[in-house]
Amino acid sequence: MPPSPGRYHLRLTLDGVPTMHGWWNNEVVARRKHTQTVGEYGQPGARVTLTDEQTGAVLTEWPEAE
User: Fold this and answer.
1) How many CB atoms are closer than 10 A to CB 18?
2) How far apart are CA 61 and CA 6, in angstroms?
3) Residue 1 counted as domain residue
4) What is the mean pLDDT of the chain?
5) Dmax of the chain from CA atoms?
6) How far is the C-alpha of 54 from the C-alpha of 41, rounded, in Å?
7) Cβ distance 62 to 42 under 8 Å?
8) In a domain, 12, yes or no
9) Distance in angstroms (rounded) separating the CA atoms of residues 57 and 51
10) pLDDT tens across 39-48, in order?
């Protein structure tokens, strides 16, 4: 069985279309990547989420859910 790509999964969707994603084992690094992704791609129609794949919890998202 191949190794897990990482516990923390970052997803970027643009207008509902999955555009890019990445995985990290370190939460601090994953949160930094989330911030960088929002800075680079934060625009109307974009959604950036960071999920803990081990627990299924969404750790942070942009824009924030209302």
Assistant:
1) 10
2) 18
3) no
4) 93
5) 39
6) 26
7) yes
8) yes
9) 6
10) 999 999 999 9
